[in-house]
Amino acid sequence: MMIKSCSIALLSLVLVILTGTRAHAQTSPVAVPTLGVTNPWTENQLLEPADLAAGIKAGTAKTPLIFNIGAVEDIKGATHIGAVNKPENLQKLKAAVANLPKNTTIVIYCGCCPFVKCPNIRPAFTELQKAGFTDVKLLNLATNLKTNWVDKGYPLGK
Predict the structure, then answer these.
(1) pLDDT, tens digit, 9 for 90 and up, residues 49-95
(2) All structural domains of the chain
(3) What's the DSSP call for residue 127?
(4) Strand runs labelled E in 5-147
(5) In what order do the strands lie in the sheet with 78-80?
(6) Which positions ≥6 away from 49 have C-beta within 8 Å?
């Protein structure tokens, strides 16, 4: 009887935990809970793809510096760094920004996979913050570059 009561109590606890946890669609890396992973960016530091695409298409002088810190296609105007989970590419990113004013608007993106799994965005974003850059944005490619950029017809590099 004691084992049955304990089993029921344990099952009830599991059900409370499961029903009390809300599932989130992959719409924003901030909204998605990641076990043991924290994001160094805030919601205000996310840049929507439509906004960047509009700036690129308009050809405004205020278009930010764009760095591809992954192993995907280049967005029009982006500097290809490569996957920064490799130390040599993280060094390449550091060198690319070393002489820039700290208030330079910088946009980084990877787009290899959903944010929750990406091995590149956190190290790159953290490194830029450590270097003192005050206007760093993460392109909100919450699913991947194909879904959130290419399939929408936004401009790619040559």
Answers:
(1) 999 999 998 886 677 999 999 999 999 999 999 999 999 999 999 99
(2) 25-152 (3.40.250.10)
(3) H
(4) 46-47, 65-68, 78-80, 105-109, 135-139
(5) 46-47, 135-139, 105-109, 65-68, 78-80
(6) 139, 140, 141, 148, 149, 152, 154
